[in-house]
Design goal:
Layout: H1 14-19, E1 34-35, E2 44-49, E3 60-67, E4 76-81, E5 84-90, E6 94-98, E7 108-113, E8 117-121, E9 125-126, E10 132-138, E11 145-151, E12 158-159, E13 167-170, E14 174-182, E15 187-188, E16 195-200, E17 205-210, E18 216-217, E19 221-228, E20 237-242, E21 255-259, E22 266-274, E23 280-281, E24 288-290, E25 292-293, E26 299-302, E27 306-307, E28 311-318, E29 327-336, E30 341-346, E31 357-363, E32 367-375, E33 380-381, E34 388-392, E35 400-404, E36 409-411, E37 415-421, E38 427-433, E39 438-439, E40 445-446, E41 449-453, E42 460-466, E43 471-480, E44 487-489, E45 495-496, E46 501-506, E47 517-520, E48 523-526, E49 532-535, E50 544-550, E51 553-554, E52 558-560, E53 562-563, H2 572-598, E54 609-611, E55 637-638, E56 667-672, E57 678-679, E58 683-690, E59 699-704, E60 707-713, E61 717-721, E62 731-736, E63 741-744, E64 748-749, E65 755-760, E66 768-775, E67 778-783, E68 790-793, E69 797-805, E70 810-811, E71 818-822, E72 830-833, E73 837-838, E74 844-849, E75 857-863, E76 871-872, E77 881-884, E78 888-896, ...
Parallel strand pairs: 1-7, 9-16, 16-23, 18-25, 27-34, 36-43, 45-53, 54-126, 55-57, 64-71, 73-80, 80-87, 82-89, 91-97, 99-106, 108-115, 117-125
Antiparallel strand pairs: 2-3, 3-6, 4-5, 4-7, 8-10, 10-13, 11-12, 11-14, 14-15, 14-16, 17-19, 19-21, 20-22, 22-24, 26-28, 28-31, 29-30, 29-32, 32-33, 32-34, 35-37, 37-41, 38-39, 38-42, 40-41, 42-43, 44-46, 46-49, 47-48, 47-50, 50-51, 50-52, 56-58, 58-61, 59-60, 59-62, 63-65, 65-68, 66-67, 66-69, ...
Helix pairs in contact: 2-3
Length: 1470
């Protein structure tokens, strides 16, 4: 309906106003009437009538276009709007229209011109052998004939004879034009723009790029070449380009070279033409797209972030979109305190390496590193990477960092001091935070001390840097962000092995002395009442993450590091230096003495010794030893595509905590299969389950590392195949009911129109819908008779919807609101308030305005409630600003002119008035002391407000959801309900003041408590458990009464001991006490405690780390019982093959009986072996079943038993015949197989010592031999290619010796591939030339890794190639320092021997050996006096008879006794 203004003085019906279609004012932009100046030099002038500054819808305007030459004949006029055609050319210079919408606002121009002929071509390119049509016309007029003209760049223009038609066909290239003629005398039009016609030739052109890298970065230099194909080599061409930075005209050069910039990212095309024919050219080439990326910044990663002194560190530098051609530069970050930054020093041999990794040996302290990459000629360099740090906790380095207070964890707002210590004067403290940001300096640095007032953002790694470039030890600081939670008090620096350490739990206000639970690597290790965890002699197995729990709140986790006990804290080079000094001391002390003895007169006998060999007896680390740091990892992806059971490498893994799901309801995330680590190519399934037992109508989502990973869907299972280490991370799941989604085609309803609203529930069917609409001034109501998914609405308002289905009806969550507005041509008034709350007895100021215009007066309206009608506030019409002292809903509107023109109403502004009344809080009953379990009511009373409809707001200590009524009833009071309570009332737009606070105190009573001992989370069938009833609050003697729903009733005693638990003991237990002296006085019933006894006997799970080893490496076994709890002891066994029973027997490992730790370390492991574990607890002890056996495999082919494969390669095709042969001095054998799915089986076709396999996909596995006497062979990997047409990689089964040559090739089922093979090492292309083999002439440790080949677009599987060190370098004695020591020993002793021989041969007396009487049973040598004889012994080595392997952790050498004391004096009586 249209809106008619009432006569002045009449009151308009406001209900009618709300139904009126709102007309919005047209704020037309000032019409900038700018003349257009066409090529005809005449000037056109545009005027407008009437000439107002602004116009409204419904008004009419007239444009007039005039010429300045005074002649209007033969002119054509046009009007443009905002640079586009608006009124087409015509002979009328006036144009009138009526404004119907704001779309008429804009900038208008006009132009005029005399008629001109227009030449158009169907196409400007003549196809080979064809022609094109040209058309000449004069706009909007008839009676014309046409003249045609053609010219070229080298010929003058000529008229085309016998052509006067409007259309002609031409087959020649050239420049064409035309003009129109009519009348007598002849009138000629202006000639239109020329049209150039080109003729197409058949040659094809292609744009090529050099260098042909897949990714080009800004700043690199490239060359684009235009190549003419199909015989174009013999013709001279010129070229035209399309694209930025290319020649704009034809050129003789077929290439363009330029430095790539951001503007270079575009399509490039070229075409060519013969130099002798300018109008015969090729077609444009296909577009070549150049994508110029931002300057790459390489990412530096490190093999480890924390190290032990002397450990090696591997740096890896990766450029985004890896491709061939990059060289890498490696730098050390040197602190520069003057610039508050770091300078970069090139590392030795770190300039332009082809490898993207760099190994730093002998790292002893904290250090920072960066890398960059370069390629091309001239070489293009990337930015430097962000610095990465390797931290050392060694507090004895040249610079160190101490923390006060000396603990890892701190509360927020704690004062913590970090002090740098060392022989330097300038310092800065650096910080590496949890979010990966590096902070250059401490904000509050005083001298060498940094002071921190801790906050959550201060959780970080800290270290010192000196002005001379030294790095200190590094420490972890963790800030507890739970103000009421505890912290773990643990040492900042590593604890020395064998030392004692004490961990405790502390609150902000006190140290906790009892009832603390301590966890090690998330496993409960102490849950008795002790408040400290004391370890009297720390061992390496105590290293790990610790946390504490108190009163249901947990501290953060902190890592406690354990360092080996050594004689000095310095590195092993100190010991070598001491040995070197002792050798030198021996030489310089004993050499003069011996020489002095040998210079006596003739007849002397020299006593000397010859040492044949100087042997290193230090127990250096064996090659292949690794620091295995085991964290609580449920999903870890190793960066290699390999088979389960392949050799493990060090990798950085993120933590996955499947049981810590964050869910709207109780969602639990599990993973299948639940392995400790996963490899690329394996598949895993996440399952998100609800604890309420219902899976219908739930929507599930999975997050990874705190970000969305799998969007909400109705599927609770999600399966994916691991394609990279990027899948490593922390996963969580949540479940929620579906939410309806409301969408609108548009949120603006055009005048007289409507819009479509759509309600949907994602990925499910069968829904009906309920629709709701409300406005700012009306309550929300349901739209009746609408259950469709789509509805059309023509009213503005706030819309929402919900989905329903099923019987009984199931409701989704309501959708988000969508606001729909009706288009209006009127302006809207804007209202603002100085404040939304009126203080008691005060007022607030309201302002009303209409943007961008003047002359308005204002009407003011107020409502008492949302549903009431607005009342016009008289006496304020002329005021833009008013003061109000009443609460309510206010809005305004503007009006001007005669008759009055009204704006749209402003939006509502809510103003709340504060009443002077003050409520009172009372307690009922009003006792001064309330005891636990009693009922109390807290009431809010407002004097004089009894008849009003108040809602109430409460402030209370423990009200998570405060009530809105005047009473808060506490049914069973507890001590946690103690605290202060206050309230205030609200009524419509009025607030009362806050009441005074009343304090409620609740004291504990003598209510019993039921406890279980031991307090294990799950009890298994056969275990012993005690249920105990404890009554606090007095030493009165009690009788006890039990109540339980278990099948077996408890006796009326304070303890109920269940000696062999079963599921019939499961149930809820509660008790109460009755005073013996007064049988009528009893306590309350205690809370129930649930006892759950499982009939399923637990089976522990054994994990082994690593799965593949080098001989002599240590192996860590971990045994985990389902539902871990305290009290378990662990038993460790070795699996010994028993071929007669086709099984294995178990032998207890040394010290493997009943260990408190759930891990066991095996040192000096040299060959393949199998292990099992079991657990026990309680008194009498209850034992679990044995775990499934787990194996550690060795590829050492020199062990006593070995396995050979024929054909000798890792990969095979399906249906290949493969033989696995066991070799060694044994008669009985079996071949065992551990497949990808974790199943263990025996060879089914065994002939003697050989197993024959006709390969299938299920034969991909690890294989090894077991002898009848219990020996294990080396192990091998077999991979079966399941792509019948794909290639396999031919690579050696066994490890390749360092320094040897190896050749890898690619083979199809029918032939060996000889050319065009691509080889990859660790997923990086290393050879892409036409050679068919990858030959490595001298294998090094860096060549170890995964290899695969690609041929004709198909890839082989990946196979691991292992590299073993040569025999001479297999033990630690091959280090350069030991070589120097040996050299010094050898040279020194040879010199001594030569000198002694020389001295002794120059004496005049013959050397005689005296033999004394057998009666004395001894040999006596003459003294070094004149005439005595000189005796000597040669030290011979006593060879070690043990058959130790090269590389064992310890190799001993026994020597004959050596006596260096010189000579014995002869008894002169003989």
């Amino acid at each position: 309906m249209s809106y008619q203004e009432k006569a002045p003085g009449q009151t308009q019906d406001l209900d009618e106003l709300e139904e009126v279609t709102r007309m919005r004012e047209v704020w037309a932009s000032l019409l900038k009437l700018l003349p257009l100046q066409p090529e005809s030099v005449q000037v056109a002038v545009l005027t407008i009538e009437p000439n107002w500054s602004s116009y409204f819808i419904g008004e009419s305007v007239t444009f007039k276009c005039d010429m300045n030459d005074g002649r209007d004949t033969d002119w054509y006029y046009t009007i443009n709007k905002d640079g586009r055609d608006y009124v087409p050319y015509s002979s009328h210079k006036d144009y009138t229209f009526k404004i119907s919408s704001t779309g008429h606002s804009g900038e208008y121009q006009c132009s005029a011109y005399r008629p001109r002929a227009t030449l158009t071509a169907g196409t400007t390119i003549i196809p080979a052998g064809g022609s094109v049509t040209l058309t000449c016309s004069v706009q909007s007029s008839d009676g014309w004939k046409y003249e045609w003209f053609r010219r070229t760049q080298t010929t003058s223009e000529g008229k085309i004879r016998d052509q006067q038609n409007r259309d002609i066909r031409v087959s020649q290239g050239g420049i064409y034009s035309c003009r129109g003629t009519r009348g007598n005398p002849v009138y000629y039009t202006d000639r239109r723009d020329d049209v150039t016609i080109e003729k197409t030739i058949s040659n094809k052109v292609v744009v090529k790029q050099q260098p042909n890298w897949p990714q080009i970065f800004r700043g690199e230099t490239i060359t684009l070449t235009c190549e003419v194909q199909e015989g174009g080599e013999t013709t001279e061409w010129e070229y035209e380009w399309r694209g930025p930075r290319t020649p704009t005209q034809w050129t003789h050069n077929n290439d363009v070279t330029f430095r790539v910039s951001e503007s270079s990212s575009e399509d490039y095309m070229c075409k060519s033409r013969r130099r002798d024919d300018s109008y015969s050219s090729t077609e444009w080439s296909e577009a070549f797209t150049l994508s110029a990326s931002n300057e790459p910044r390489p990412v530096l990663t490190m093999s480890q972030s924390w190290l032990s002194p002397g450990a090696s560190v591997t740096l890896n530098c990766e450029v985004e979109h890896p491709s061939a051609g990059w060289s890498f530069y490696w730098y050390k970050a040197v602190p520069d305190l003057s610039e508050k930054s770091s300078s970069y020093e090139l590392l030795p041999d770190g300039s332009g390496t082809a490898q993207d990794s760099y190994i730093i040996h002998g790292q002893t302290h904290t250090a920072g590193y960066v890398c960059r990459a370069g390629r091309g000629d001239p070489e293009y360099h990337t930015d430097h990477s962000q610095p990465k740090f390797v931290w050392s906790a060694d507090v004895h380095s040249a610079a160190s960092l101490t923390v006060s207070p000396d603990r890892v964890q701190h509360f927020t707002s704690d004062s913590v001091s970090l002090t740098c210590e060392g022989n330097f004067t300038e310092w800065r403290v650096r910080k590496f935070s949890e979010d990966g940001r590096l902070y250059s300096d401490c904000r509050r640095m005083t001298g060498s001390t940094c002071d921190i007032n801790t906050s959550k953002s201060d959780t970080a790694v800290y270290w010192c840097e000196s002005g001379s470039g030294e790095f200190s030890s590094a420490v972890n600081i963790t800030v507890q962000n739970d103000g009421n939670g505890p912290i773990l008090v643990s040492p900042v620096h590593p604890v020395t092995e064998g030392a004692s350490v004490s961990l405790s739990c502390s609150l902000r206000t006190q140290k906790i002395l009892s009832n603390v639970f301590f966890y090690h690597n998330d496993k409960l290790i102490q849950n008795d009442p002790r408040g400290e965890l004391k370890i009297s002699a720390v061992s390496k197995s105590d290293e790990g993450f610790y946390k504490c729990q108190y009163s249901g709140r947990e501290s953060a986790q902190s890592w406690m590091s354990v360092k080996a006990a050594v004689s000095t804290p310095e590195s092993s080079s100190f010991s070598l230096l001491m040995i070197f000094r002792l050798i030198l001391g021996f030489i310089f002390i004993f050499l003069p003495l011996i020489l002095f003895g040998c210079r006596w007169s003739k007849g002397d006998r020299c006593v000397y010794e010859t040492v044949r060999r100087c042997e290193n007896t230090e127990n250096g680390p064996a090659e292949g030893d690794y620091n295995n740091v085991t964290s609580e990892i449920q999903l870890k992806v190793i960066n290699k595509t390999r088979q389960r059971g392949d050799p493990e490498e060090s990798s950085d893994y993120n933590d996955v905590n499947p049981n810590s799901a964050t869910a709207v309801k109780c969602a639990v995330l599990t993973i299948e299969p639940n392995w400790s680590s996963y490899f690329i190519g394996e598949s895993v399934t996440f399952k998100c389950d609800m604890n309420d037992g219902r899976d219908t109508d739930w929507y599930y989502t999975i997050n990874k590392d705190g970000r969305d990973y799998v969007p909400y869907s109705s599927h609770k299972d999600y399966t994916f195949k691991i394609s990279s280490t990027g899948h490593s991370g922390e996963y969580q799941c949540s479940a929620d009911k579906p939410r309806a989604t409301l969408t609108a085609g548009t949120t603006i309803i055009p005048v007289g129109g409507s819009v479509t609203l759509t309600c949907s529930v994602q990925s499910s069917d069968g829904w009906k819908y309920e629709w709701f609409r409300g406005t700012q001034r009306t309550y929300e109501g349901q739209i009746r008779d609408q259950q469709n998914r789509d509805i059309r609405v023509s009213q503005g308002g706030i819309y929402s919807c919900i989905g329903t289905r099923g019987n009984p009806v199931y409701y989704t969550y309501r959708s988000d609101d969508v606001t729909i507005e009706i288009t209006s041509s009127k302006p809207r008034a804007t209202m603002t308030a100085q404040s939304s709350v009126i203080p008691a007895g005060g007022s607030v100021t309201l302002s009303c305005s209409v943007e961008g215009s003047a002359g308005w007066k204002f009407d003011w309206f107020r409502r008492d409630s949302v549903s009431s009608k607005a009342q016009l506030m008289r006496g304020n019409e002329a005021n833009r600003v008013i003061s109000v002292s009443q609460g309510g809903l206010y809005h305004c509107r503007g009006g001007r002119g005669d008759p009055v023109y009204y704006t749209e109403d402003s939006s509502d502004v809510t103003v709340i008035e504060t009443l002077p009344s003050k409520p009172t809080v009372t307690l009922q009953p009003s006792w001064t002391q309330i005891y636990s379990g009693e009922t109390v009511t807290v009431r809010c009373e407002i004097q004089g407000g009894e008849g009003a409809q108040w809602t109430y707001e409460w402030r209370a200590a423990k009200l998570n959801t405060p009530p809105t009524s005047n009473e808060y009833r506490i049914i069973r009071a507890t001590e946690s309900d103690s605290g202060g309570y206050s309230c205030r009332g609200r009524r419509d737009y009025f607030f009362s003041e806050w009441s005074d606070i009343i304090t409620l105190t609740v004291s504990s009573s003598n209510r019993p408590v039921v406890t279980l001992y031991p307090n294990w989370s799950e009890i298994h069938r056969g275990e012993t458990i005690t249920v105990r009833c404890e009554i606090h609050g007095g030493d009165t003697e009690w009788d006890y009464e039990w109540e339980t729903n278990s099948m077996i009733k408890a006796p009326n005693q304070n303890e109920y001991r269940i000696r062999s638990a079963s599921s019939s003991n499961s149930g809820n237990y509660r008790c109460k006490g009755r005073m013996k002296s007064s049988q009528h006085e009893t306590t309350e019933w205690s809370d129930s405690v649930t006892l759950t006894v499982s009939d399923n006997e637990p089976r522990p799970v054994l994990t082994v780390s690593p799965s593949w080893l080098s001989p002599g490496a240590s192996v860590t076994l971990n045994c985990e019982v389902e539902h871990p709890s305290a009290g378990w002891s662990f038993y460790w066994f070795k699996a010994v093959p028993d071929l007669s029973e086709k099984s294995s027997s178990y032998e207890l490992l040394p010290d493997g009986s009943g260990t408190a730790q759930d891990s066991y370390i095996i040192h000096g492991q040299t060959h393949t072996a199998g292990y099992v574990c079991r657990a026990g607890r309680g008194d009498p002890e209850y034992h679990t079943d044995h775990s499934q056996p787990k194996f550690v495999w060795s590829a050492d082919v020199h062990s006593a038993a070995s396995l050979t494969v024929s054909p000798d390669r890792v990969q095979h095709f399906t249906s290949d015949s493969v033989s696995l042969t066991c070799e060694g001095n044994f008669t009985e054998w079996r071949v065992r197989k551990f497949s990808e799915d974790g199943r263990l089986s025996d060879c089914s076709r065994m002939t003697g010592s050989t197993c024959d396999i006709n390969t299938s996909e299920s034969d991909t596995a690890v294989y090894w031999c077991e002898s009848g006497s219990g020996e294990f062979s080396s192990a091998v990997n077999i991979t079966v290619q399941n792509d019948g047409d794909g290639p396999i990689l031919v690579s050696p089964v066994h490890p390749v010796t360092e320094g040897a040559s190896v050749s890898l090739s690619c083979s199809l089922r029918t032939q060996k591939i000889l050319s065009n093979v691509f080889f990859y090492h660790n997923d990086k292309l290393i050879e892409n030339d036409p050679r068919g083999e990858l030959k490595i002439s001298a294998v090094s440790k860096s060549d170890e890794g995964f290899y695969k080949c690609q041929y004709s677009g198909r890839e082989s599987a990946q196979s691991w190639m292992s590299v073993k060190v040569t025999v001479s370098g297999a033990d630690s004695s091959s280090s350069p320092v030991w070589l120097i020591v040996r050299l010094v020993c050898g040279v020194s002793l040879i010199i001594i021997l030569l000198l002694l021989l020389y001295r002794c041969t120059t004496t005049n007396s013959a050397v005689n050996e005296q033999t004394f009487n057998q009666h004395h049973q001894q040999q006596v040598y003459s003294s070094l006096l004149a005439g005595d004889h000189c005796g000597y012994e040669i030290i011979r080595r006593s060879e070690n008879s043990e058959n130790g392997q090269r590389g064992d952790a310890e190799e001993s050498s026994d020597y004959n006794n050596v006596n260096l004391s010189g000579c014995w004096v002869v008894d002169q009586r003989f």
